[in-house]
Amino acid sequence: MADGWTSDTGEAVYRSRDAVKNLKIKVRIQRVTSAAAISQHLQQQVLSHQDRGGIELSTLAPTGGDDEEELVLGWQEKLFSQYEVDLFQTEAACQTPLDRQYHAEIAALLRGKGRRNGRIFTYTDSDRFTSWEEHSESLVTPGTSGPTFLAERMANVRHRKQERCTGDSIVPKSKLVNWEPSQEFMKNSHIINTPVQTMHIMGDLGPPGKLGLKESEHVLCTIRAYKNGVVTIKPDFNNSKGPYRLETAGGTRELWRLTLVNASKAIGAEEREREQRMYRDLYVRHRDYLNSLAGQDFEMPPTGILRLIVNGEIVSAEGFEYDNLYIHFFLELPNNWFSLPFEPLSGVTQTCRTRTLGKDNVAFFCYPFSFESFFQSEDESEESLPRWPVLYFKVLSLDYWQRYRTEGYGYLVIPSAHGCHRMTCQTWRPVQNGTVAELRRFFIGGSPELEDSSYARVPSTFKGERLSRLGFRTETSGSVTLTLHCIQQARAFVDANSLKKRRQTVLDQLGGHSQQGSVYNVLEAFQRARRRMQEARETLPRDLISTISPVPRSSESTA
Amino acid sequence: MAELHIIGQILGARGFPQNSVFCKWGIHAGGAWRLLSGSREGQTQIDAPQAGEMAYWSHPIDLHYTTKGLQGWPKLHLQVLHQDSFGRCQLYGYGYCHIPSSAGHHRLQCVTWCPEGSWQEQLTQSFVGGGPQLRSPDLIYSGADRYRLQTVAMGMVELELTVILRHFDRHGVEC
Amino acid sequence: MLMATSNPSVFLLMVNGQIETANFPEYDDLYCKYCFVYGHDWAPTSGLEEGISQIASKGRESSHDLVWNFPLEITFKSTNPFGWPQIVVSVYGPDTFGNDVVRGYGAVHIPLTPGRHTRTIPMFVPESTSRLQKLTSWLMGRRPEFTDPKVVAQGEGREVTRVHSQGFVTLQFNIVTKDMKKLGYDTGSAESAAGPSGERQPYVT
Questions:
Q1: A305-461+470-538 CATH
Q2: Which residues between 349 and 368 in chain A have a beta carbon less than 8 angstroms from any beta carbon of chain B?
Q3: Per the database entry, which stretches of residues form a coiled coil (chain A) (predicted)?
């Protein structure tokens, strides 16, 4: 009998676009006959003897079925408790207009068919209890001396029920900040001020025939309806769970069973269907609208061609010997790779003075480059995989006398995986033996250079079987950081289903062979860019930079 | 057609000579791209941090692009400025970053640089402020004429961006 | 949802989390409230859109952190990622004279990728440029405040604001999305969230 209690009395949150006035709750309380029932019965008899004055009271109480009660309650429906009936019956006790209204209602009830409730009654939002309860009810044991200022403030604002526009109001720019907020403003804005209405469903769980005592009032259920459509119910509807257990305190410990059921009228099947159809239409129309904005066509490479787009950035260079760094770079496309005509595959960054970060001197370039290239495999030889483009770069420094020094060489193979890659490349520079060379580097500038930057990897003209750098001396220099965002596109990817399969398709369909790079064209372009830069150095950067006082700069040419 | 959503924040900046800075930002994308919703440029608040060298802006970015092609993938460009106690603004750095092409969450650090004048200019700059600025801001996100500039490394801007891709896979694109 | 699952037109974003801790080295006895800001295509379907925490003090032994451990639980639906929800947190507490003043506003997007995420958001307050106003506001306990905390989630109109950042709030999120894949949205896998660009931060000093 007492099994299957629901012990979780936590709050439940519901959302409804429907008006809250349609909410109906069926409440049922039932006394569980305990072992103490007989003694209670005796006690009760004694009590009723003492209580001879209350004949009227006992006549008012519903006869029979006192151990059980079931009621369907509407939102903010006022049902008077025995206590309230007693209180408001005498007009002298009525102070507020609400009290007087209750007085009139109770008088009408008494004249008419009587109350429909016994133990179950309600406190609506306008009742004193509702505001009083939030204040007094302590959340901890033992109860603290009083509510915090926050709780007080919340109670004050929440019960104001002002009609506030809930739509997202656009705050004008000039009034974004309230420079001297008033006390009132702070009171309102530091707390949540969504209007809320509260209703308490109460039970008078006093012993039979002894209803109307304030002490035996118990909160059965608290319902709050917020302006934004949220309804919270504590405890939740029982639905399929067992009843809640209520225990009265004090000398007469009794056990009650509480069941809460949502008795609101459900939406009709037809209506539901209509609503769903409406939403579906709305969503579909919205989607079509977005699709129409986006359009349908998309560029596509021809069959059998892999398109590679690299959006890259030369981020920084650090740890180099001299200051005022700049970087030359060019891209080498291996065989079977093509680029669009006029696509610059090389570039030169600005000259950047370094700053100290941690131990190293860092130059920030933030230099963008992007290139698009196409790969087409000529014949299907299973032995080899496509070679990927290589980015060669050279770090140089420029001094006050416009002399440049080679600071480092490096290269980077464009990753064959798509996605974002942040890469840090170590560099080296060729050195000549002896202090004289270093002194020359320091005083005169200029330093050994590679004839061909691709020597940093495998020289483009190299045909042998093993690469040897014997006899060549280098010195470690700094590092260059790049980010690359690689995008690949091919028709083959469309047909493939799973990602894994796609990978295989890339290699299967596009897998060609590796050959020497067509580096010469690129080198040529690179030389062109370099010439252009040198020309530009001579004509000063006056037209590019607007200064407060343009002062001619020393224009010594490179040593 | 494919869609790209860029959602995130310009978090803040650090490593600048003064930490009370703000940022003007903008997005540049190629001709195949069309912005359906969201604003393509903006300006952050001016933060004067209480402690630490990082200035926080928490500036939200929410953009919805649609595209017919892959060229001209959007780039975010930034200008970091400092406002002194007289209300004058001084350029502290230019920077840009490619919007990551792979879907997911990305924490980006965008380094910045500032054009450097001659030593005479630098001297006046230290007294009255000002200093050289780019004549056309598109140089921030293009590499074409960069080699004509003499710059100095400045601070860093931090961004947190999440990229959502839609229907790129339909067109055989692996980002 | 309402739609047949085979051809969904909306996706769901389920957020579970908490406002975990705050780090305000100089202040104590703080409480916070949160709300969500989202675009027109978005609607909450369950859970609470706003909340206000208890007043929390720092532990005697612990560091600067004070713990709210305040739960967040909400589900949104949308047709389109644009206007992705942001959570706006504002923190309040007493000043030296006992006036209840604002200690910070902050906002962050709800993480877009499924899984567990921790976000530490910087908090800031509007600041007056005039020294006199600063002094009077300090004396009167009337610090400048945003007219509506939700403005910190907007990108527009920020250029006129001068702020002063102080402190951090740490939030935790557990994100579940439904039907985003079916609608064709690729938010990246969980691995790519901590991918090369997420991991490496070479300039952290």
A1: 2.60.40.150
A2: 349-355, 357, 362-368
A3: none
Kindly list the residues from chain B whose CB atom is less than 8 angstroms away from the CB atom of residue A489: 70, 171-174
Among C124, C173, C200, the residue to mutate for chain B (most B Cβ within 10 A): C124
Question: What is the predicted pLDDT for the residue at C70?
Answer: 94
Question: Which residue carries 């740890």 as its tokens?
Answer: A319
Peptide bond into C94 cis (omega under 30): no
Residues of C in contact with B55 (CB under 8 A): 165
| Helices and strands per DSSP (H, E), number in chain B | 1, 12
Whole-number CA gyration radius for chain A: 43
> CB B7 to CB C201 under 8 A?
no
Question: Which CATH number do you get for residue C125?
Answer: 2.60.40.150
What fold characterizes domain B2-171? Answer: Immunoglobulin-like (2.60.40)
Q: What are the structural domain ranges in chain A? A: 12-40+66-79+116-140+147-161+182-268, 305-461+470-538
Cα–Cα dist A244/A9, whole Å: 8
Partners of residue C122 in chain B, C-beta under 8 Å = 11-12, 54, 56, 58
Bridge partner residues of A318 (DSSP): A362, A479
**Partner-chain contact A230 C202, CB within 8 Å:** no
In this predicted complex, what is the ipTM?
Answer: 0.89
Measured between beta carbons, which residues in chain B are less than 8 angstroms from residue C183? 166
Helix (H), strand (E), coil (C) string for A74-95: ECCCCCCCHHHHHHHHCHHHCC
Contact A499, C189 (CB under 8 A): no
Give A492's DSSP letter.
H
Whether residue A488 and residue B174 make contact (CB cut-off 8 A), yes or no, is: yes
The pTM for the full model equals 0.79
- Measured between beta carbons, which residues in chain B are less than 8 angstroms from residue C203? 15, 109, 111, 156
Q: 10-residue block means of pLDDT along chain A (559 residues)?
A: 70 84 87 58 52 41 62 87 83 82 86 79 81 64 66 65 47 74 81 83 80 80 86 85 80 80 84 88 82 78 87 92 90 86 84 88 92 79 73 88 85 90 91 73 71 74 74 87 92 64 47 39 63 65 46 38
- Domain contains C96: yes
Map residue A28 onto helix, strand or coil. Answer: strand
Q: Measure A326 CA to nearest chain B CA, in Å.
A: 8
From the list C9, C55, C128, the residue facing A287 with the nearest CB is C9
